[in-house]
Amino acid sequence: MIGRSFADLTDAFIWVGRFNEATETARCGLVHLENEISANRVRLLPALGQASAASVGREPASAALREALDLASQVSDPKLEARLLGARSIANFHYFRFV
Questions:
Q1: HSE-CB of 29 using CA atoms within 13 angstroms
Q2: In this model, does residue 79 exceed pLDDT 90?
Q3: Domain total for the chain?
């Protein structure tokens, strides 16, 4: 439940454009989940990538999205993979990387 709560709060911060708070919330949630391989961790990582792209910079966003891709392949959830690809598209849009 902790992971889901952090993921929901992070999403809410992103929706209202509070990217610094979203980044902090996602990082805090990831600390609580540590190295767990779960859907909630996979859900937090693309949100962190998306918020980081808008607030912190390209490299932290890319690192979070790469880790999310690695974990998503282990979880095997098509909805999570679609969410991840959407977050990656938004992060790429911030840096005009239209690939």
A1: 28
A2: no
A3: 1
Q: Which residues of 42-59 are buried (b: 16+ CB within 10 A; e: fewer)?
A: bbbbbbbbbbbbbbeeee
**Is there a domain that residue 99 lies in?**
no
What is the number of residues in the chain?
Answer: 99
Tokens 């969410």 locate to 83
Q: What is the pLDDT of residues 61-74, one digit of tens each?
A: 888 888 888 888 78
**How many Cβ atoms from other residues are within 10 Å of residue 98's Cβ?**
7
In eight-state DSSP terms, residue 29 is H
**3-state SS string for 39-71:** HHHHHHHHHHHHHHHHHCCHHHHHHHHHHHHHH
- For residue 72, give its domain range: 2-94
